[in-house]
């Protein structure tokens, strides 16, 4: 990895750390609960998409707001992550965010 690529990767580290935690949660706790979410995508999938699109801080805030809206009296339905105008990265097959390739 060249020096410039490393510098481009540094700002993405907090985002990918949060994504690692979310993937661990989805593989253990969320998997044990089953399909109980009133919304599509599920709250944990929404959190992954929010962090991917908006970063660790804003994505966590969007995910927290979604969890607050998910209660027994919620109507539910389709609730996609609002797209970020500033998202110019690529996703790995496992959903981690990496800088765009400069081919």
TrEMBL record:
The keyword Membrane applies. It comes from the Bacteria. Keywords: Cell membrane, Membrane. It holds the Pfam family YidD. GO terms for cellular component: plasma membrane. It is found in: Cell membrane. It is a peripheral membrane protein. Could be involved in insertion of integral membrane proteins into the membrane. Belongs to the UPF0161 family. HAMAP family: UPF0161_YidD. This is Putative membrane protein insertion efficiency factor. The lineage of its organism: Bacteria, Bacillati, Actinomycetota, Actinomycetes, Micrococcales.
